[in-house]
Structure formats: structure tokens, C-alpha cells
Amino acid sequence: MKFTVLSPDGIPIAPERYNSRAEAAAALAAWCKRFKSQGYYAAVGERIPLAELPSRCEIVEDDDSERK
Asked: Alpha-carbon torsion 63, 17, 19, 4, what sign?
């Protein structure tokens, strides 16, 4: 099983898939930090405060057979 992190817009935050939920969570935390200087994430039609950003993203399980 692999994991993908989706932004609030439903787009993967990176092309990589992660081997564990913990790896995906660490990638999400690093991705959220990229918006620190901006102070928010600009989603389609709204600005999401950084404090809310991790909870507005989603870590989803990918079936390896889907990508073969």
C-alpha cells in the first residue's frame, strides 16, 4: 500500500507516493511550511489559514495495482 497527500484542491502535493502514513504526514508538514512567509494557502476561491491547512488536506491510500 502506498499513500498520496492531496491538497485542499484535491491535487497531489508531490508526484511521489509514500510508503507509510507517517512518511506522508511528514511530507504534508514540510509542504505546509512552504506557505509560512505567505501566511496562508490560496485554494480555489478561498484563503486557508496555515493553522487549518493540514486538516484541509487528505492522506489517501493508493492500491499499487492501480499504477502498474
From this structure: negative
Query: What is d(CA 68, CA 50) in angstroms, rounded to the nearest whole number?
Result: 36
Question: What CA–CA distance (Å, rounded) separates 21 from 40?
Answer: 24
- Residue 24 contacts residue 4 (beta carbons within 8 Å): yes
* H runs (alpha helix) in the chain: 21-33, 53-56
DSSP state of 7: -
Q: What is the pTM of this model?
A: 0.87
Q: For the segment 35-66, what is each residue's pLDDT rounded down to a tens digit?
A: 999 999 999 899 999 999 999 999 999 876 55
